[in-house]
Write a structure and sequence with these properties.
The structure is a homodimer. By secondary structure, chain A is of the alpha/beta class. Chain A folds into 3 domains: 3-77, Arc Repressor Mutant, subunit A (Orthogonal Bundle), CATH 1.10.10; 97-130 and 375-477, Aspartate Aminotransferase, domain 1; 133-372, Aspartate Aminotransferase, domain 2. Chain A has 17 helices and 15 strands. The first copy, chain A, has helices at 3-6, 14-27, 40-47, 51-63, 102-111, 133-146, 148-152, 161-171, 188-200, 215-223, 241-250, 272-284, 342-353, 358-370, 373-398, 424-433, 463-477; strands at residues 67-70, 74-77, 119-121, 184-186, 206-211, 227-234, 238-239, 255-259, 289-292, 317-322, 334-337, 404-405, 413-417, 436-440, 453-457. In chain A, the strands form 3 sheets. Chain A has an 8-stranded mixed β-sheet, sandwiched between helices. In chain A, strands 3-14-15-13-12 form a 5-stranded mixed β-sheet. In chain A, strand 5, helix 10 and strand 6 (227-234) form a beta-alpha-beta unit. In chain A, helix 9 crosses helix 13 (342-353) and helix 15 packs parallel to helix 17. The radius of gyration of chain A is 26 Å and the shape is globular. In chain A, 56% of the residues are buried. Chains A and B meet through helix 2, helix 3, helix 5, helix 6 and helix 7 of A and helix 2, helix 3, helix 5, helix 6 and helix 7 of B.
C-alpha cells in the first residue's frame, strides 16, 4: 500500500530499506546533525510498515551512529557527524562557456550572485553596503505588527494601496500624473515587464528592442515565442529613433520595449524631447511601448529624468519599475502603470501568482513615505557617480589599447568594447577561475553580436576591485 | 520641453495648469491631507516651468485652501479637507453576473476578499483568526535581523536553502523522499502551477483536468492557450481513473493536472492505490502530472495523506504546494518539486520574476523548523473538521429540498449541488446585495457546467454565518 511496500523490487530486508531511506536523507542534508527525525509511530503510519520494522530500522541507524535516541524526546541525527556546510549550493559545472547556450550562460551569471567567493562584476545587483538594510527591516517589523491582518492576507491586485499612493506621488517627479488606481504592484520590475509583454503581444509577434539589450529581456522574449527586432542604441541617448523609424516603415512591429533612463547595459538616457518623439512615433502606428524605468532614480544629476509615459495621453505606454536597484532586490517590490492595458495586466497578475508578498509591500510603502528615500537617493547617487568614474579610469589604465568604455550619467554599470580579438565568453571562463564574475557581451544580443564586449558592475568598486580590473585587463590582453 | 510646457493646448494660464495638476492629485488621494508636496524648486525643475510660475500656482492653491505653507518646512495639503477614506477601494460595478464573462466573474469573487463588509463564503481563503499571525511576524523580524544580507538579496532560484530543506523533511510524511536541491521555491502554489504548465505544455496542447476544477486553473489554461479536457471527479476520490483512461485512449493529452488531496472544490481525496495507478497510467504514455497538494496538510485524520509524487520514480510528477492555506496567504511562499523538468522550471522562474521575496521565505523556514507547525496543524484540522460539519448541517436545514452537499475529509470548502432551477450566477448577484460573497458553480467549468452548484468556504463558520446560510437558502428557494 505504501510507496515503500509496493515498490519493492530488491531482496534487501524491509527494515534495511527504511534505514537506507533515512540515512540518504541525512547524507543529503535534508535532516541535519542535531535535528529530530519523525517518530517511530509517525513513520510507521506514513510508510505503511509495521512499528517493529521502523524500530529495527532505527536500531540499525543507531548502531551505525547516524541517529541517536534521546529519552522522552525521540530520535535525533547524531551531532558528531561531520557538519554539512550550509553554503555554497553551487557546484559549478566544468566550465567551457563557449559550449553552453546563451540561456545557460545567463543562468550562470545570475547564480554567480550567490557565490560569496567571487568578486561581483557580473549581475547588475546594487551594493548591499549602500542599502538601508536595518531601517527597511525595522519597518518590515513595525508595519507587519501595525497592519496584522493585511500582512498575512493576499494583497489582491492592484495590490497594497499605500504603496501605490507613494509610487503615484513619486512619479510626479518623473513628469507623470498618475492616480494610485492606475498602478498595479508586482514582484519586482521583471514581473512587471513579463506582464506587460503578455498583455500586449501574442506568440509570433515582433518586438522592437534596444541593442544591446538586458539579457533577461532576451530570455523572456524567447520564452514567450516573440521575435526580437534589435534597434541600435548609443551610450548617450539610448535607442536610435532614426533606426526605429526605418524599421517601423519596413517591418510589422507589435510592441516596443526599452529602458529609457540609464539603460542596461549602455547607460544611455533618452533626452526628454526624444522620449516625446518616441511616444508620438509609436502613437501614429498604435504600437504600445513597454518602458522600464528601474534606473530612473539613480541619475547622477540633481533630478531624476522624466519618463516617456509623461508624454503619453493615449494610455499606450506601460511603465515598469521597482525598488530593486535602490532599496532591496530581495524584497521583490515593483509596479506597473499599464495605461489602457490595465485590466489585462491585473487579470494576468492574479492568474499567474494571485498577488505579491504583502509584508515587503508594506515596508517599502513606509520607507517611501517616512524613510528618507530622497536623502538616501542623494547619497547613493553620489557614491555610484564616483564608483563608475573610478572604475572607468581603472579600465583605462589596465585594459588593452583600443578598449572603449561608457561614461554613464546614472546607474552603476559600465559597458566595454574591447579589441576584436577578445572573446568575452572565453574571458568569462578565465575570469571566474580567477575569482571574478562578469557579464559577457554575447548575452546582450539575440543574434550573436557584442562578442568583444563586456558589462561590468561598478557598484562594488574598492581598492580590491582595482586589482580585479587589472586581472581582467591582463586576461583580455593575453587573447591577442 | 517639459510635459506641461509642450503639451499645452488650452489658453488657461500656465500657473493655473500647474495648480490644477496638484489639486487633482490631492482630490484623487495621491497626496493626502497633512502630507508634504514637492518644494517650489523641485517642481519647477521637474516640470521645466519657472520658479515664479510654481509660486503663483501654490499661491492660488493656498487661496483655495487646498495647500498651506508651513514656515521652514514647505507646503502641505490642508488637513481641514474632508478625509479621503483609505478603504474600500472597491467600487463594485453595477452587478449583472449573467452578463459578465467567467474571467470577470472570477476577478469579482477574488476581489470580494478585500471587502470587509462581506461575509466571506467565496474565495477559499483560510480564516485569519486560525493563523499564527503574531508568531509568524515575530519570526519575520528575528530572521531578517539575523540574516541581514540574505533578507535583502535575491533568493536566486532554486531559492532559500533553509526553506527547501524544511520542505524536503516534511515531504517524507507524504511518502516522498526529496532532496532540498530537487525543490524550487515560488510565490505561492499558483505560481508553482503556472511554471509547471509552462514547462510541460505549448500553446494548443491538451491538458486533462478534474471537473469541477479550481477556477484559477481554468483562467490559467485559457491564458496559456491550452485546451482543457474535463475528466469527471467524485467528492470521495477525485478524478475518475476510468474516465481518464478512456480519454487517454481517444484523445492526445499532453499533461494532466489535479489536486490530489481534498481537492478544490469537491474536497475529494484520491486513495493511495489510485494515486499509484494514476502515476502508472500516465507513465505508460509518458504524460507529465502536475500535482497540487496545497490542502494536503489539512486532513481531518491523524496523518497527512501521501502524494502521487511518492509513486513517481521517473520524475514525471511536478509536485506543487505552499503555506497559503495553513500559515499566510499574503506571504506568498510556495514551492515545486518538478522532477525531470527541474531545469526548465528554474530558468522560467528566473526569467519571469527572478526570485520570490526573501524575508517571507526566511520566516516560513523558521516556522517550519521551530514554530510548532505540527501542533498548529492539529489545532486547525480539528477546527476545520468541526466548521465544515456544522456548515453542512446548516445547509441541510436552510437550503431547498433536493440540495446535496459534500462531506469533505480535509480542507475547508463545501460543494453544493442545488435543484436545477437555481442559477448560481443570479444567486451570486443576489447574495452580494445581502452582504454575502460565494463562488458560483459556473466558474469551475470551462464548458458551462455546474450552473446549479456553488462552493462555500466554511473556514469562517460562526453563529453569524448560520444566518448567512439561511439567507442563501432562502434566495435559492425563491428561484423556483
Amino acid at each position: 500500500m505504501s510507496p515503500i511496500a509496493r515498490n519493492r523490487t530488491t531482496k534487501v530486508p524491509l527494515y534495511e530499506e527504511v534505514a537506507q531511506k533515512i540515512a540518504r536523507m541525512v547524507e543529503e542534508g535534508t535532516f541535519k546533525p542535531g535535528e529530530r527525525i519523525p517518530s517511530i509511530r509517525t513513520l510507521s503510519r506514513q510508510l505503511s510498515v509495521s512499528i517493529n520494522t521502523v524500530k529495527e530500522a532505527y536500531g540499525s541507524l543507531e548502531d551505525r551512529r547516524v541517529i541517536e535516541a534521546r529519552p522522552q524526546s525521540g530520535y535525533y541525527v547524531c551531532t558528531r557527524l561531520p557538519k554539512v556546510p550550509e553554503d555554497p549550493d553551487l557546484s559549478r559545472p566544468e566550465l567551457n562557456p563557449t559550449a553552453v547556450s546563451i540561456s545557460e550562460l545567463v543562468a550562470m551569471v545570475m547564480q554567480d550572485v550567490l557565490n560569496p567567493d567571487l568578486i561581483q562584476l557580473g549581475a547588475a545587483i546594487p551594493n548591499p553596503e549602500l542599502l538601508p538594510v536595518d531601517k527597511l527591516n525595522r519597518m518590515l517589523s513595525t508595519q507587519t505588527r501595525r497592519h496584522k491582518l493585511e500582512s498575512i492576507s493576499y494583497a489582491i491586485p492592484p495590490g497594497c494601496k499605500r504603496l501605490r499612493t507613494q509610487v503615484a506621488q513619486r512619479m510626479l517627479l518623473a513628469g507623470c500624473e498618475l492616480r494610485p488606481d492606475e498602478i498595479i504592484t508586482t514582484s519586482g520590475c521583471m514581473e512587471a515587464v513579463t506582464l506587460a509583454l503578455r498583455a500586449t503581444c501574442r506568440p509570433g509577434d515582433t518586438l522592437a528592442i534596444e541593442s544591446p539589450s538586458y539579457y533577461n529581456f532576451l530570455q523572456l522574449i524567447q520564452e514567450l515565442g516573440l521575435r526580437a527586432l534589435e534597434i541600435p542604441a548609443t551610450p548617450a541617448e539610448g535607442m536610435s529613433l532614426e533606426a526605429l523609424r526605418y524599421a517601423l516603415d519596413h517591418t510589422r512591429v507589435n510592441a516596443c520595449m526599452l529602458i529609457s533612463n540609464f539603460n542596461n547595459p549602455l547607460g544611455g538616457m533618452m533626452p526628454p524631447e526624444k522620449k516625446k518623439e518616441l511616444v508620438e512615433l509609436l502613437g501614429q502606428r498604435d504600437i504600445p511601448l513597454i518602458e522600464d524605468d528601474i534606473y530612473g532614480d539613480l541619475s547622477f544629476a540633481n533630478d531624476r529624468p522624466t519618463v516617456a509615459k509623461a508624454y503619453d495621453s493615449a494610455g499606450r505606454v506601460l511603465l515598469c519599475s521597482s525598488v530593486t536597484k535602490t532599496l532591496a532586490p530581495g524584497y521583490r517590490v515593483g509596479w506597473i502603470a499599464p495605461g489602457r492595458y490595465y485590466h489585462q495586466v491585473e487579470r494576468l497578475k492574479m492568474t499567474f501568482n494571485i498577488a505579491s508578498a504583502s509584508p515587503t509591500q508594506l515596508a517599502v510603502a513606509e520607507f517611501l513615505a517616512n524613510g528618507g528615500y530622497d536623502h538616501h537617493l542623494r547619497s547613493i547617487r553620489r557614491d555610484y557617480a564616483r564608483k563608475t568614474a573610478l572604475m572607468g579610469e581603472s579600465i583605462g589604465r589596465h585594459f588593452p589599447e583600443g578598449t572603449r568604455v561608457t561614461r554613464p550619467r546614472g546607474g552603476f554599470t559600465l559597458w566595454l568594447e574591447m579589441p576584436e580579438y577578445v572573446d568575452s565568453l572565453r574571458l568569462y571562463g578565465r575570469a571566474v577561475k580567477e575569482g571574478i564574475t562578469i557579464a559577457p557581451g554575447s548575452t546582450f544580443s539575440a543574434t550573436g553580436k557584442f562578442r568583444n564586449c563586456v558589462r561590468l558592475n561598478a557598484a562594488f568598486w574598492s581598492e580590491r576591485i582595482d586589482g580585479a580590473i587589472e586581472t581582467l585587463g591582463r586576461l583580455a590582453g593575453e587573447m591577442t
